[in-house]
Batch of 3 targets.
Target 1
Amino acid sequence: MTDNDKTEILKVLIADDEPASRFGMKRALQKQGYLILEAADGREAVRICREQRPEIALLDLNMPKLAGMKALEKIVAADNPPLVIVVTAYGSEKVAVDAMKNGAYDYVAKPYEVDELRMAVARAAETVMLRREAEKLRSEVRQGVGFGRMVGQSAAIRQVFSAIEKVAAADVAVLITGESGTGKELAAREIHARSRRSAGPLIVVNSAAMPETLVESELFGCEKGAFTGAEEQRQGKFELADGGTLFLDEIGDMSAGTQAKILRILEEQTFERLGGGASIRVNVRLISATNRDIRKLIETERFREDLYFRLKVVEIVLPPLRERPEDIPLLAEHFLGVMVRKHGRGPRAITPDAVKALVAQPWPGNIRQLANAIENCVVMASGDEVRLEDLPEDIVKPGAADASAIAVRHDLPFREAKQEFVRSFERTYLLRKLEENDGNISRTAEALGMQRQNLQQKLRDLGTR
Ligand SMILES: Nc1ncnc2c1ncn2[C@@H]1O[C@H](COP(=O)(O)OP(=O)(O)OP(=O)(O)O)[C@@H](O)[C@H]1O
Ligand SMILES: [Mg+2]
């Protein structure tokens, strides 16, 4: 909430037929900094709500002209109605319950303690503010806070946006790295869309899924009869991408043979179709991506350094979601809108409690995992809002399902997959303990039976400090 919102003056309507009663309420509330409006009967209350749009209305249910309950119905049926706190006679709880069913926000029984009245109004004021904040967030999302289709406002993601902007204009080879689900493909699409090549094609090649025997026909195409099964001439991906961008995804999983073939075409700039004569020259911009630690792959000689330098004229690193938690509310709202449109139904908002729980998650699967969690809520939630209890189990009760929240990296060899899993576990576990101890490292270390320095080093190694 901005300071601006905090200092905003809320209008409170007091609707009661007894002047003394109005006076009492007014006195109780005026000092709290509200702007007080008054109505002496139900009809006037409805009119003032329509014309002056108070945020909160205190409505006595025993009033002449238009009875309180009828006035309530009219008030809450209007566009953007105030939160109505009904004032009932002591002992008439049933009436109060009926009023709540009819859309009242809260009730206070007469005679009331001044503090009780103030508390009820303060609670309503808090709700007004929270709703405004949520509305502001939604309108920011509608206006597209971020960069093209990429949502985000954090310093870390803004650096990515500005890098994308620069390389888009430059027509150089770009390597995009980052954990799974951080938005590498989306970033590649954004680069293409902002480049001079945007009118040309963007062709995606999944290097990992490509069997080595088919690399050449896939990438370079083939002439009719080049091999059994080649019944007609086919263009390869490089040719299809002519004048546009070729996106080589998952390059960290490319076989040695494929690496050699791709390097050759990058060096020679020309190629021939399989079984065909004339050499073909194409004008293609290369963007590649991997979620593997490419430097380690080079060190262990599983990725060619010469190819790496060709692909990485510029490298863009996408930060994991847990390193930019301030983007989570925005992304959650964004995906809520996307998923409600996709399914044609679903909740309109996420309660502040639920947003807080989302922000506290480590999100090992990053933005993709967040999108899936929100989709789950849209499909499963029954109310108007996503509440804390509507969040997927592993988010509400992280302790019970932490292990399943940690992604098993089936794409890695055993040792690395195990290392990654352990790291994720350490991160999830330590961050939670740290949070339980209000971020105090000494206290956390003590609670865990660890040396303070060890914990600090561990957090640094995990990239969380
Ligand atoms: N900044 C963002 N704003 C909105 N949506 C995003 C953002 N980043 C990613 N997404 C969405 O999250 C999902 C995952 O993104 P993407 O496929 O680009 O990730 P990736 O890094 O390529 O993952 P992997 O390594 O698993 O291939 C997609 O649905 C994408 O549209
Ligand atoms: Mg991808």
Target 2
Amino acid sequence: MLRNTYITDPEIYEIVVDELSRQEHNIEMIASESTAPLEVMELSGSIFTNKTLEGYPGSRFQAGSHEADRLEKLGVERAKELYGAEHANIQVYSGSTANYGVYAAILTTGDKVLSMRLDQGGHLTHGSSANFLSRVYDYDFYGVNEETEMIDYEALDYKAKEIQPKLIIAGGSSYPRLIDYERIGKTAKSVGAYFMVDMAHVSGLVAAKVIPSPVPYADFVSSSTTKTLCGPRSGFILCKKEHSKALDKGVFPGSIGSMHLTTMAAKAWIFKYAATDEFKNIMKQVLINSKKLAEELTSHGFRIVSGTTENHIVMVDLRSKGISGKLFQSALDKVGITVNKNQIPFDPASPFVTSGVRIGVTSITQRGLKEGEVKIIADIMNQVATSPEDEENLKICKRKAEELISKFPLYPSGSFND
Ligand SMILES: Cc1ncc(COP(=O)(O)O)c(C=O)c1O
């Protein structure tokens, strides 16, 4: 691995090798993470790094685009086929820039947008005051029902009628349930709004057809490619044919510059791989593992937000254990289990402390862990939560976690030996 860097910059080499070791020895359960197949790594660092290119096949701003044209056309066709979409744009660099591309295509300054609250499951790029776009567009929010902790569709309808937004956004980063895309699509139509679904988190589950797809109901579907899709650090957008010209303009020149052909190649690869039985079986097991984790944690006295999960995310309310998300994240980190603190709906704690954690099962499922191993992880988590500041307890838990994960290599042995 990194033969040349090893010679020219041992300092950077060492950091990368240490990161490989960290991932290998830890139980990675950040819900937005996955393990990129080796082909995705290869392609992400390919010779296409050297090529600068803007525009679209047939109307480029630079010469020398023959191979890049072949690549982009192939990637677009694969994305369309995988998701049954009428049009795809695969130039965006990430899930965030995918959203910016849609905004640039259809919104002008001051337009009203209705999206899910960040502290109840939405995303920063959907209008958070921390994001610069909150100063450009006029965002308003819907949330979840306090009792069910599921989207309050009636309140969403009401708000849509009241504010008459130009765009309604569904999808988020910490919502563990399925979303009724058809219903929100109807609401959008009834008020003359565009409907965009940000499926960044669930795009792998959608590709594998193990959960419903937003594509038939949404004008635009944005996504990153690093989460359940298990691809490179990038993004893409799907849309109805009638919006294709506006979308492509919104992406380039609307919101990005030259393409990243390296990750575009890796995206094209993952769009093919995601149609295989191997990938579909991993995604099926992701759903089984997340349900199992929710059940096991419940049996240990944790409260699961909304009672269960219907995707790869388990949202855990830690108040019954008398600990904060911040403390639990840090104690689990010492044990070698990586999760992130996360606000739960109506959280009395700040985003820096939180009453909950968000746990994802994509990476562990890719490594081959099944229900039996998920039960062991839940048992370790419970033992950590019982005495999160007792260093002896954490040492015992660390040994158990290491023993478990050492049986499931991150990559086949020898993958990085050259
Ligand atoms: C729903 C959602 N949209 C967009 C993004 C941003 O994706 P990226 O990090 O690829 O820019 C995220 C990332 O966490 C997300 O959860």
Target 3
Amino acid sequence: MRRSVLYDHDIRRSALHRAERLSALTATERDMIRLVNEPGFQRWMEQIHSIGGCAAPVYLSGATTTRDAATGEVLRSYDTGNEPGGRLAVRCRNRRESRCVPCSYLHAGDTFHLVRAGLLGGKGTPPGVADHPRLFVTLTAPSFGTVHRTTASAERCRPRRDGGLCEHGRALGCGLTHDTDSSAVGQPLCPDCYDYPAHALWHAHAGELWNRTTRAIRRHLATSAGITQTDLGRHLRVSFAKVAEYQRRGAVHFHAVIRLDGPDGPNAPPPGWATAELLGAVVHAAAGVVSVRTPYAPGLGEHVFRWGTQLDVHPIRALGDDAHINDQAVAAYVAKYVSKSVGDCGGTDRAVASLDDIALLPVTAHIRALMSTCWRLDRLPELGYLRLRAWAHTLGFRGHVLTKSRRYSTTYGALRVVRAEHRAQGDGPSLPESDGTRTDSVWRYVGSGHTPAEAEIATGIAADLADLAAIRRELTADRGRPDG
Ligand SMILES: [Zn+2]
Ligand SMILES: [Zn+2]
Ligand SMILES: [Zn+2]
């Protein structure tokens, strides 16, 4: 009798304990319990594993059937009917680290291969390009006002012995030291002196300034060879890949690889007169003369935009040369920037919907001022064509992060096909088509993103995959052979 009372007591206590624990569970933990008990959980995990633990997968539903083109015989078929929820997860493919770490790494890797192929050959680009004249060029934005900067040891930020104040009563100099992490770096000494409209408008025209620069490079090359611009194409081609990087002051600058090829592209070198030295001189001249004039707007006047005075032009040496700038380093450098976004200079990488939205963002005062400036400038009918509100979150810059000319090297699409073939997994819409077959696909979007519990599992999968990749790299390094 006594025993059963005890027993009963224990049961009640453990039930209470369980209830307490259940009520103490967070929403994510309850979601996790639901998720792991779902019948398709294992297969869902496999899906997320196959997309590298993508943080924001896109779910598709549909089917792909591959037939022999001649006989119509079905060679492969796949449909999402047997998948959990009747859907298949595919990668978000976002290049931004702030949105999806695994996809941003994959994208950076693709960029590395894309840029490297243009420098060393490979991935369908002939290896001879390594002997063509190649430059690594950095073009900067002009100054829109004095900002605090990182100081080297024993250096001071904006020293001014005579002191002096601006018309707003703020010191014209700083005189302090700032390390790289200092939140002051990139912020203006006086926000009222800073020319926010010019900064935002320069961003809006930076793409056009780049286009004009590439045209001027071709023009100058023709002039220096004593031929017409139309004739230039019979002698050589100019190829490039460029990436935009946000500096701490919130202004983009461009890093570009510029290469000279023969008239038919990368298969042949340019004529002997088209040297890296000549190209260097031509880039300097072109960057110095190009400008973009903005339309007149009341209260703003008009602006004539040019590049900043800081222009770096370096020939790229072949790997193995002890020169500082080599193929591999350039490709790695460019790849690093495509995963960055305006978020890395204190901004945000999501579009904003209103001025209130901008006011609430966790950004620096400087970035907020730039965004609000874009928003306000959009009201001017003369500047309507710039659609500055749509680009307020990128501070007015509307270009792609990476742009390249057609003949530079391979494409992201081609690299993805190679990867899909390599994986040879056979499921999903990225299935490559081979000769002699016909593939019919019907896919529709059915949703995207993770629940909090799904996100936790995907993060875990991504971390496991990253560990595996690191171990594999170490093993490969131990064996002393390059990664295949
Ligand atoms: Zn992703
Ligand atoms: Zn300072
Ligand atoms: Zn001032």
